Fold Guanine nucleotide binding protein, alpha subunit.
Amino acid sequence: MSKRVGHSYSSSEPILLQSVGGSSKASRFYDEDAVRVSQKIDEELKREWTRIKDAQRKQVKVMLLGQAESGKSTLQKQFQLYYAHQTLEHGRPLWRPVVYFNIIKAVRMILDELDYELANIGSDDSTEGQAVAHALAPLGDVSGEISHLREKLVALISMEDSLASELNGGISVTGGRTGMYVRAGWQALVTPLSPNRSRAVPATGGPPPAVAHVTNLASRTLNASQDEVDELWKHPAVRILLNNRRIRLDESASFFLESVKRISQPDYLPTTADLLNVRLQTLGVAEHSFDVELCGSRYNWLMYDVGGARHAWVPYFDDGTLFHSYLEEDARTNRVDDSLQLFTAICSNKLLKNSHLVLLLNKIDLLKKKLDAGSKVRKYITSYGDRPNTFADVSEYFRAHFVQVHRRNDIGRRALYAHFTSMLDIRATQAIIVNVGEAIIRSHIARTGLA
Ligand SMILES: Nc1nc2c(ncn2[C@@H]2O[C@H](COP(=O)(O)OP(=O)(O)OP(=O)(O)O)[C@@H](O)[C@H]2O)c(=O)[nH]1
Ligand SMILES: [Mg+2]
């Protein structure tokens, strides 16, 4: 908002402009000087109003939509890394407790699943169950070793709830201890926010005592239990159960467990790779503001990171299409089908009719890894049939499905920009950010006629 002495107005106050501009009747009672002053104020106000309108037209709103865990917040962090590196630097320490939480949750999940599998080792007579029992047999009875490790890790695991509750700001979400959830502006719990939207400013007084206390306690406890965490992670029974998909962890768990020695150092500060790998579910909508220089002009990008939990989207989709495709708990629908349904809802949504569409098919690194390990797509998507299981064929197959959905459902007759991405790859993602940004700005200019 711009300010002049004695006047204060903003783009949301056009009425003020009209009332000042419409003062000519009253001016009859003033002398010539007063009229000149009044006209000058009018002109200034008009100029200011035009400037505000221009600034508004240079604002680009970007909404990140997609399934839970599809990488929306990671893309937002990549934007921050590219366009607002300083804010990412300031925010680095805030992620410490979240990284600790990711490790502790993984440790707890490994122990829980291990206990279950070891207790049921003989009772699963499926082919897969027998294969696991066969692989575990040479290790002998490991339950004693595992209980010993569990005892040593009790103090660490007990930190999971207190970390989650401090960072959730006391919010408890139904569904149990499946994760840590944060609402928009969660950083405010640790660092005060600047008035300029969600941008964190450097902490002056430090984090509130409760968060600082829990974070430091988690750090000390992890430091004291790092050998046991490492031992558990490398335990042959854990390796076997992971390889046989009997233990399923968050995708980034292995990244953090491999790095436990580094992370448990008392002076640990999250690296950029840590920030991109860390998992923190977005609850609701987080707004981020970036100043972006593109095609020779400055734009303000307002980025809305919409949590993948569908109930958060309902206010944005008034025709209910999306609400009906709420599939979060429906395990029978695979992620690709779910994603296609979601994309159908986005393409056909009237409220989004005038938006540009950019489709990012993310996590290609994981797809490549799975294909390299011999996974067959047909096992998950029967219609894939006997097509070759190479990245080129599989990615083209997926792309074609999304292009078809777009062709059939797009109510805005829009161009579709589609990219394959791996959001953990900084260089590749940043090339895409620039590429997509320029394409959006070019269409923006074409539409508004404003460079
Ligand atoms: N391997 C790999 N992991 C990724 C990629 N993109 C994101 N991730 C990881 O996937 C997890 C989920 O990413 P998020 O960015 O939190 O997902 P989100 O879409 O914001 O999820 P919600 O907030 O629940 O809607 C994080 O641990 C990321 O590090 C990718 O391209 N490859
Ligand atoms: Mg998110």
Observations:
- Residues 66, 68-74, 251-252, 276-277, 279, 281-282, 307-308, 362-363, 365-366, 422-424 surround guanosine-5'-triphosphate (ligand 1) (CB under 6 Å).
- The first strand starts at residue 3 and ends at 4.
- The beta strands are 3-4, 7-8, 59-64, 181-183, 281-283, 285-294, 297-306, 357-361, 416-420.
